[in-house]
């Protein structure tokens, strides 16, 4: 097992051990290394920002502080390129800029060999992304959604009619290659789907949303599903 893999496995074992902790001897036996090596690995984890605690004496050991975040997980070159491709292909998606910045942070901490292999593989993946809506519009929509505040938009419908509306954002939805802001329209007093590309201006107001829920939107489009941080 490579050291990077061992460090990740070590942090996972400490996390699973909870408040009981694990002795250095048990950790050494688990990974087939010396106690001295385990203690060096624990020091490396702590230096990387992992909240490692130690308890001396009989029954003591090592563990991770509860509810604390773990150090970043190393990616394979293919995993790194998969993330880059997904964000590049969806440059008009909500929070795409933040996703791109997050991926860059991950790439910056990859070991040089993995980064070089990822860069080489990335050159073999081409993306023809659709033009994104203005950054100022998307920023306002993203802030309004995250903070659950009313957003004021200037919107041009498919028939060419332009209106100014106050909307309580409920969700973002992608269907048939287009992104929509779905929310409670105070002008129409009803739930409405607004094509993001047709929103000419947007500004976040100080008014809080009144609590309209995703369930009020109705059934999602065919094959649509929420974006979760877990496998589908």
Automatic annotation (TrEMBL):
Pfam family, one: WYL
Family matches, as PROSITE patterns: WYL
Protein name as annotated: HTH domain protein
Highest taxon of the lineage: Bacteria
Domain Helix-turn-helix type: 6-62
Record-linked PANTHER family: PROTEIN PAFB, PTHR34580
SUPFAM superfamilies xref list: Winged helix' DNA-binding domain
WYL domain mapped to chain residues: 139-203
Organism: Arthrobacter saudimassiliensis
């Amino acid at each position: 097992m490579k050291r990077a893999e061992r460090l990740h496995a070590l942090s996972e074992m400490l996390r699973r051990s909870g408040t009981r902790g694990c002795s250095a001897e048990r950790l050494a036996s688990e990974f087939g290394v010396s106690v001295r090596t385990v203690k060096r690995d624990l020091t490396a984890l702590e230096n990387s920002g992992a909240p490692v605690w130690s308890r001396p004496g009989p029954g003591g050991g090592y563990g991770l502080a509860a509810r604390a975040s773990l150090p970043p997980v190393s990616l394979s070159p293919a995993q790194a390129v998969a993330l880059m491709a997904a964000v590049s292909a969806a440059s008009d998606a909500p929070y795409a800029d933040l996703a791109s910045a997050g991926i860059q942070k991950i790439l910056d901490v990859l070991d040089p060999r993995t980064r070089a292999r990822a860069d080489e593989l990335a050159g073999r993946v081409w993306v023809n992304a659709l033009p994104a809506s203005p950054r100022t519009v998307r920023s306002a929509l993203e802030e309004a959604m995250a903070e659950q505040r009313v957003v004021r938009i200037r919107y041009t419908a498919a028939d060419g009619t332009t209106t100014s509306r106050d909307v309580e954002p409920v969700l973002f939805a992608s269907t048939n290659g287009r992104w929509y802001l779905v929310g409670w329209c105070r002008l129409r007093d009803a739930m409405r789907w607004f094509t993001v590309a047709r929103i000419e201006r947007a500004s976040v107001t100080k008014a809080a949303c009144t609590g309209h829920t995703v369930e009020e939107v109705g059934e999602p489009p065919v094959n649509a599903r929420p974006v979760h941080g877990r496998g589908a």
